[in-house]
Amino acid sequence: MTTVEVPHSSRSVVLTVSGVVEETPDSLSLVFDVPADLADKFAYKPGQFLTLRIPSDRTGSVARCYSLASSPFTDDAPKVTVKRTAEGYGSNWLCDNVAVGDTLEVLPPSGVFTPKSLDHDFLLFAAGSGITPVISILKSALTEGSGKVVLFYANRDEKSVIFAEELRTLAGRYPSRLVSIHWLETVQGLPGVDQLASAVAPYLGHEAFMCGPAPFMDTIHKALADAGMPRTQVHAEVFNSLAGDPFRDADVVEVTEDEAADAATVEVELDGEIHNLSWPRKQTLVDIMLAKGIDVPYSCQEGECGSCACTVLEGKVEMENSEILDPEDIESGYILGCQARPVTDHLKIEF
């Protein structure tokens, strides 16, 4: 029995596991019971993820992000799917230890790998467990949207296909709107750029979303570019192992008089509200928003998860770590709030 009774931060909560579903020989899904008083806090968008606190004999705990494979429109409870990896401490611990009735400490849903509208036509790419956020978008688009969905799903072999039965059911339910293309490495080898560029040519007007190992996503990026899809229509989910501890409350950074006098000013729009703030040069955007008691989205504070991604509308920032953002994203104004420090005297930022 794995039991957590008290959360380690003001942002995290303890949830009970209400279901454990074996998806494939090396993957399972965990379904969480969310009490009614936490329903608003755990409302989520298709494609978002949960951050779980996992016990560790070596470090006390590790934090890992797992995508929600459920849809807020079709599933009664949030569900994350975990696949074992050879060196994956977190995934192996969850697969070996968690049972129905156990409790885990969890941060609220986060992430920006989510469509702005479900009425688009979608071109979805997934490899292995990368299907988890993709199937959330797929189910949501079919249920709530009006467009067509094309799924390209690559796996090692047939027994590795997560959600195979669910995808067959959806294909039967939406025969005129869903096309599923399965690619098996044992049969077809690894997908190549030229093959994919030809395959996606009829769908260049679609919004593309992809999740999977880095080499797979590099191939998809190149294929879409070669086929002529605009970069603004391409969205990729990137996960890195978290080095910091997102379950620790952030420290309030002290500001000297000189730093306050030299501070920039920033207008931040978050959830439809405008906040006008003083922004000392040595502090990050997340730092100053937390200091003002603003419920800014963030998780790792290390620039590794993308939870705090936002857009610079006016002004300029510098970032210490922005590796999870593509150069095209940065050119378009995307920044990480936990890494951004002001360069110009006035800025305008939108979450």
UniProtKB/TrEMBL annotation:
Cofactor (UniProt): FAD
Signal peptide coordinates: none
InterPro entries (alphabetical): 2Fe-2S_ferredoxin-like_sf, 2Fe-2S_ferredoxin-type, 2Fe2S_fd_BS, Beta-grasp_dom_sf, Cbr1-like_FAD-bd_dom, FAD-bd_FR_type, Flavoprot_Pyr_Nucl_cyt_Rdtase, FNR_nucleotide-bd
Cross-referenced Pfam families: FAD_binding_6 (PF00970), Fer2 (PF00111), NAD_binding_1 (PF00175)
Domain 2Fe-2S ferredoxin-type as annotated: residue spans: 264-351
Keywords on record: 2Fe-2S, Cholesterol metabolism, FAD, Flavoprotein, Iron, Iron-sulfur, Lipid degradation, Lipid metabolism, Metal-binding, Oxidoreductase, Steroid metabolism, Sterol metabolism
Domain (FAD-binding FR-type) ranges: 10-116
An individual GO BP term: cholesterol metabolic process
Enzyme category, top tier: oxidoreductase
Record EC number: 1.14.15.30
UniProt-listed Gene3D superfamilies: 3.10.20.30, Nucleotide-binding domain of ferredoxin-NADP reductase (FNR) module (3.40.50.80), Translation factors (2.40.30.10)
Catalytic activity: androsta-1,4-diene-3,17-dione + 2 reduced [2Fe-2S]-[ferredoxin] + O2 + 2 H(+) = 9alpha-hydroxyandrosta-1,4-diene-3,17-dione + 2 oxidized [2Fe-2S]-[ferredoxin] + H2O
Molecular function as annotated in GO: 2 iron, 2 sulfur cluster binding; 3-ketosteroid 9-alpha-monooxygenase activity; FAD binding; metal ion binding
Alphabetical list of PANTHER family matching this protein: 1,2-PHENYLACETYL-COA EPOXIDASE, SUBUNIT E, NADH OXIDOREDUCTASE HCR
Name of protein: 3-ketosteroid-9-alpha-monooxygenase, ferredoxin reductase component
Organism of origin: Rhodococcus wratislaviensis NBRC 100605
Gene that this polypeptide is encoded by: kshB
